[in-house]
Amino acid sequence: MRDIVCGWIRKEDKVLLVNRLHEPWKGYYGPPGGGLEQGEDLKDAVAREVGEETGLKVDVKEKIATFIVKYKSFRRLRCTFSDAMWSVAS
Question: What is the CATH T-level fold of the domain 2-88, as seen in this structure?
Answer without folding.
Answer: Nucleoside Triphosphate Pyrophosphohydrolase (3.90.79)
